[in-house]
Amino acid sequence: MYGSFFLVTFISGVLLASTFCLIEYVRFFVVAMAVTCISYGLTTINVYLFALFDGVTNLSSFIPWSFVNIRYWSHIATWFLPLIPLAVFVGPWRNSRLWHVLVAVGAGLWWWIVFLSASRGSALGVAFGVILVSLLLGRRAFPWLKVFLIYLGMGVIFWLLLSVAVPSLIADEAQLRTLKSDSSGRWPLWIEAWHMSLQNFPFGMGPQSWLTHEPITEAFADSKQFGHPHNMYLMWAAEYGWLVIAALGVLVVQAIRNFWRRRAELFEAEESGQILLLAGFTASVSAALFHAGVSAVFMAPASMLLGMFVLIGFWGLVQQKSAVTGIQPSPTTNTRFRVITTTLLATVIVIVWAFWAGEVWRYYKDMRADETYYHKHVRDGTLPRFWHHGNFPRDVKSE
Questions:
Q1: pTM for the whole thing?
Q2: Closest listed residue to residue 106, CA positions, set 170, 165, 44, 46
Q3: For residue 393, what pLDDT band results from cuts at 50, 70 and 90?
Q4: Distance of alpha carbon 317 from alpha carbon 255, whole angstroms
Q5: CA-CA distances (angstroms) from residue 143 to 26, 140, 332?
Q6: Rg of the chain over all Cα atoms, to the nearest angstrom
Q7: Confidence bin at 397 (pLDDT 50/70/90)
Q8: Of 18, 61, 213, 227, which shows the fewest CB atoms inside 10 Å?
Q9: Considering only CA atoms, which of 284, 181, 189 is closest in space to residue 231?
């Protein structure tokens, strides 16, 4: 799943850049994302009113809505909040005052939900991404940064009005979700994942070993068990080994190199529109990578499905124009060598994919066989994951 996810984003980004469809793709995605955020934000007001009419002041029990866990929503917020300001710079309605107002209201409502749900990971991740982009792009990113700060300010106003003032009129005091300063039980999980990564260094303990391994540290054995250690990098190191982390590091380094080359190219060409797009998408990806250090950003389906489109846009935006427009091959290029190399590479990819697909199918059958036991004894329902539930594989005899 992880290999396919990142491979699809990189290949799709390069293909979009090479076929000159990238800007159209980015603009369409930004507008569609903004419309979705506006709709979700306005519908949240409907949920908010029903809660107040029922005398509910602890709004975080109902908002954000439609997610089984508020943290699944915060993953989406991390991806989208840096991108929403782009909606007033691109698209068919960028000159419409009504559109600007709607986008501002939608963004303000999303920021309100961040404050309401005390989404520390989102807030810190977005802050990291925005500060990083501001340092990397300087004054060229100021138009995007200005709009971003305006939307943040609107979020504060909405929070004061909807979470403090209005509930205080209904009850003696508003019930606000407190912002915790501790690790929320993550520290024992991180230590356990670290020790797991060293058990079979540098190859890890194998897929899903986090669910099946015998506890290594006493603190983890005595702590609450979760389906992941709330740190994607430690989880990958624990299950797949530090070699995978090193491979991801190579991709990150390549992305940084591409970013600097594209940045220089855009600065020289004075292409302010693409610089703003680069600012928003870089901030979004940086925020998500930061957030992944404290949450399952690259495990939750909603985050991965939507984040995939963001990563595609980012990877396409950092491609050098000279790298995708056209250095034509020399007539003297050894065509036979190229054909043989391409064929061998395609053959290897097909073989690896066939093996991977076979293992996925085997896992799926085992999971279906285990499903009856899961629903009968665990009774947690079917959770929003890429598998039916998170407790497989299990040793049924031992239970």
A1: 0.85
A2: 44
A3: low
A4: 10
A5: 18, 7, 48
A6: 23
A7: very low
A8: 61
A9: 189
Give pLDDT, residue 182.
54
Q: What angle do CA 218, 199, 212 make, to 5 degrees?
A: 65
Q: What is the pLDDT of residues 159-205, one digit of tens each?
A: 999 888 887 777 666 555 655 555 567 888 999 999 999 998 899 89
Exposure of 294 in the CB half-sphere (CA atoms within 13 A): 18
Q: What share of the chain is helix, strand, coil (3-state, %, to 5)?
A: 70, 0, 30
**Confidence (pLDDT) at 395:** 58
Output 336-340 pairs: Cβ under 8 A, ≥24 positions apart: none
Determine the Cα–Cα distance for residues 231 and 364; give it in Å rounded to an integer. Answer: 26
Q: Which two tokens stand for residue 8?
A: 């699809």
Beta-carbon contacts of residue 223 (< 8 Å; ≥ 6 apart)? 185, 188, 189
Question: Are 123 and 114 contacting, i.e. CB atoms less than 8 angstroms apart?
Answer: yes
The C-alpha atoms of residue 310 and residue 305 are separated, in whole angstroms, by 9
Residues 6+ apart with CB under 8 A from 11: none
Distance CA 147, CA 138 (A): 15
Q: What pLDDT does residue 326 have?
A: 44
If DSSP states are collapsed to H, E and C, what string results for 135-176? Answer: HHHHHHHHHHHHHHHHHHHHHHHHHHHHHHHHHHHHCCCCCC
DSSP class of residue 377?
Answer: I
pLDDT digits (tens, 9 = 90+) for 214-237: 888 888 888 887 878 989 999 999
Q: How far apart are CA 220 and CA 223, in angstroms?
A: 5
**Which segment of 72-86, 137-151, 205-219 scores lowest on mean pLDDT?**
205-219
Longest dimension (CA), the chain: 82
**Which residues lie below 8 Å from residue 115, measured CB to CB, with a gap of 6+?**
155, 156, 159, 163
Helical segments of 163-293, H only: 166-170, 186-199, 209-212, 218-222, 232-240, 242-269, 272-291
Q: Which residues have a Cβ under 8 Å from the Cβ of 152 and sit 6 or more positions away?
A: 111
Torsion angle of C-alpha atoms 319, 135, 311, 17, degrees rounded to 10: -20
